[in-house]
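Researcher: I'm preparing a figure for a lab meeting and need a structural model of a single chain. I don't have an experimental structure, so a prediction will have to do for now. The sequence is pasted below. Please return the structure as tokens so I can convert it later.
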Amino acid sequence: MSIIMFPANSVQHNRPVRFYFRQEICEIIPSHTTQTVLQFLRESCRATGTKEGCGEGDCGACTVVIGKLDEQNQLHLEAVNACIQFLPTLDGCALFTIEDLQNLSDDFHPIQHAMITAHGSQCGFCTPGIIMSLWAMYENSASCPNEEQILDALSGNLCRCTGYRPIIDAVKLAYESPRVTFDKAKIIDALQSLQALPSLALMIKDQQFFIPKTLEALAELYKTYPNARLLSGSTDIGLWVTKQHRQLDNLIFINHILALKTINNTADYVEIGAGVSLQDAFTALIAQNSGWQELARRFASKQIKNAGTLGGNIANGSPIGDSMPALIAQSAKLVLRCGEQVRTLALDEFYIAYQKNALQPSEFITAIQVPNHQNLPDELSYFATYKVAKRFDADISAVCGAYFVKLDKQNKVSEIRIVYGGMAEIPKRAKHLEAALHNQEWLEANIDNALSKIEQDFSPLTDGRASAHYRLLVAKNLLKRFYFESQVTAGTTNEPKLIRLTQIA
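Model: Understood. Here is the structure written out token by token.
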């Protein structure tokens, strides 16, 4: 076991952060609690294959692969952004970088060989991050993924030189080569030994970092430190450090709490733990309702979905957070806990004002309950959510719209929820528009008559992503898109009617 120690005189109490790295377990005291994995690699290990591009998890040049054990004690590999992940979060995990691939074979890895052969690299700056994203996919997929799956794996890796066709060609070539695998048994054994470690508590330069392992320990810690920040995927909090240079005194990392990482299906709803990754959460939501499919594919990059959590996205409460409109449209509820007290709250009531929510001191989200909207014999319901942004992959929404409608046997609207992100200071329902459509027949003419009501619900701002006029136009057009798609789904028309969406391209 190798031991790498950082300034010991700054440490008041702790045990080292322990993780698998370079084929052994390392013990490390970070220089500060918010030291990033990227800083550790480049400044302490001189592992310069991992690059810094944007410093905010957008470009993918810093991509590394994190290994974790799943519920069956099998090794699962996830590509993440090293630039926004804090070093203590590696506790109990395995870390792989581009330098590790040379240990998997006597020569270049098949992914690397294929990138050379297919001319998938020019300047080379982004190439290590691309290769690590592809390597994670290679290890998790025994057969060659289709082109859409390859593009999804690359959604968080930007290349200014090549375009992406030769990179896609490289993936196909890699799978045609003799397969190279690595000894997972050794890593699994190492990670199993790390699971027995006590909870981590670091204090470095008056900064504290806690990693509780049970829900009870988290509740107690949060009572003791009510001003602490709960940390999960670091996809937002990481930017506070890298871009805003904020000092974060107390952090509680929740990703080792198994009770927050469960997905339970009941007759009435699917319950998703607050610590479930966005990737796994979307998989569960799509299984419940295919209306999630489009949004799930366009929601952030693969790296962000691997690291971020549904509970964290909700708690952050950004008005451009794409999960909340869809969850509100589906009448989702939050399970909240403070100490031993547990309550439920409709997500529609959770947001109070910009970046403000209804959480009480020391209260936190434990799960999200999303109802199963089962159609009764005399009912039909439809759900869909759409994202409009300048870029297909990994871009912030100008407008995100989510729609749920239930129709009675007379084709009248018995229930409707229309929710938008990017249109107000919080994710918000269009209640005037809903009221205008309630009990009305679900017809194009009635929707046209009601559309003006949206201007009573929203006064969107003009910013770099879109003008106020554009946002209102898009919001109206998305509702009409939803209507026409519901007609096609119901089989009441032979072909979808098309709205001119020239301003939505």
